[in-house]
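Intended use. Records like the one below are meant for learning the mapping from a protein sequence to its folded structure. Do not use them to infer anything beyond what is encoded.
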Amino acid sequence: MPDRETLVDCPSTFLLGLTGIVLPALVAPGFQIGPRLKLIRDAPAANRMLAGYADHLGSLEYDFLTSRAPALAYARETVSIDRDAPAEWINALLLQRLSEMQSILLRLWLIKDNAADPDIGWMAVKFGDGVIVNSNRWSGAYSKADGTSEPTAFSRDELRSAAAWKIDPQDMPEGRGVPLYRAGASEERITKLSQNTLRMQRFLYFVDGARKSRDVAIKIALYCSGLEAMLSSSNTELTHQVAERVAVLIRERGEARLETYHQVKAAYAIRSKAVHGAMFKDRDHHKLVAAAIDIDQICREVVQSYFSSVELSDVLESDQERFTAFWLGKLFL
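Structure written out for the chain above:
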């Protein structure tokens, strides 16, 4: 860490355009969707925020942010910058804001299926007598469960519901949350499926991959892999084990539970064909889409259940003995 004497306070603006989303009129200061980030749909406000930065962005990006982006996420705040390494610090701040944006996109998915997608993120900081502007973005583009990317409308009430979800590490016991999106780590691992990750981290890694695949069969396969990472404890009768546990976790006893069990089994049948290289006939396409929509909703409800109960999230992240005992109790007690 630098000496406090090398830190200087600087005004900053983070701005990112969103596509695949339709918002109600949100004039500045906009809607507070996260601890720092706000959403707006206000072209004049975007022009004011970018005043003095147009030359740094380029005409195409400036035009997109000020007139063509369906929505903008932004944060304006004073930040501390190390005067000896300003570019590195500003890039680290940019990565943090992009991580926060990923958490917000997950919150929106927890409300309903959508293909809201972030464009390039920009961080502009007034440093000394000049301006430093950095840009970056996450790779991949989201699609809906059926593989399309038609814009999805969110009402103010739905935005409020999205903002209310407590899914970040600081919101959960022992730092539990969604550190998958934590940026600026000093150590880059070759896989996010490493030994010390939480079940929910591994689950959301597969969900994120599923949402970024436009191939519906592969999307289903990734959703199923996520459910395995979250709920399985052995390889014995794996399909039955996961389908059974999903059903008892998110459904009350009765027809709805049985239907969910069969929906997971149907998704697994497709997954088996997809990962073993089988071909899908044209007449099966509607079944693929229906199964993808079902399993997307099921995964959403699993995540909702986890973050709605500290007790549940605690037992799902517990050791093998307690984890297995929990499922036996759900099934037989």
